[in-house]
Amino acid sequence: MKVYFVGAGPGAPDLITLRGAKLLGSVQMVLYAGSLVPTEMLQHCRPDAELIDTAELDLEQQQACYERAKAQDLDVVRLHSGDPAIYGATAEQMRRLEALGIAYEVVPGVSSFTAAASAVSAELTKPEVSQSVILTRVSGRASAVPELESIARLAEHQATMCIFLSGPHLKKIVADLRLHYPDSTPVTLVYRATWPDQRVYQGTLATVLEETKRGAWNLTTMMLVGAALDKGRQVESSLYSKDFTHLFRVVKKNKDKEKNKSAAEPEEISVNGDEV
Known about the structure:
Blueprint: E1 2-7, H1 18-24, E2 29-32, E3 50-53, H2 59-71, E4 76-80, H3 91-100, E5 103-107, H4 112-119, E6 133-136, H5 151-154, E7 160-163, H6 170-177, E8 186-191, E9 199-204, H7 208-211, E10 221-225, H8 252-264, E11 270-271, E12 274-275
Parallel strand pairs: 1-4, 1-5, 2-3, 2-4, 6-7
Antiparallel strand pairs: 7-10, 8-9, 8-10, 11-12
Helix pairs in contact: 2-3
Family: Belongs to the precorrin methyltransferase family.
InterPro entries: 4pyrrol_Mease, 4pyrrol_Methylase_sf, 4pyrrole_Mease_sub1, 4pyrrole_Mease_sub2, Cbl_synth_CobM/CibF, Siro_Cobalamin_biosynth, Uropor_MeTrfase_CS
Region (Disordered): 254-276
């Protein structure tokens, strides 16, 4: 008997990994977060699988499902939205499984922050602009954010920031961001990325509050902010430059240079056992 923590991805049923879909089609019991995972995702499950919506279950009730599965020797998929490693509340479940002597495995999934970036065809990192991505959120009723990780403190870096569940807190978030980011900094809001009712807003820190209706972006909204989102900043990496040499691609003129250099150099000789 084994429990598999599977990342369902951001919402679209075909954005689950092949491994995740295969596991859904093989196990006898599936626990899924019904408030976050679309029911269309369950099409990957085997017809006779027991499907348990955990939206109304507390942790002890979920543990009881694992205990019953162990008694019946049933493999289980615990289906989480996005990727289980980010705001998945998986560690507390794993501790209980370890105490019960139940083996488990984690299968990663597509996170909502990358899905949000894809919704606007954005690259979150650009050379000389931002090479760091900060994943964060604001304090909520279920989980507090440490003071050192407040939006205002993290904004000091002016890196690309992806703020989960940002909708209900837009006014405070924007005020904290403007302490360090210029008002012209691009902002993207993506509501329910990859779901049929996905909505997107693109603007700046100066315009986002004026151009969005209060309450329209609550719940599952991802906020992307940072200079890297500015498509007008045309900065290119050297990686694919015709003049850039690396382990797998040697520029022709450098090949010729190395050949000529080798031909002109004298052979090595040894003096008192030392090469010169």
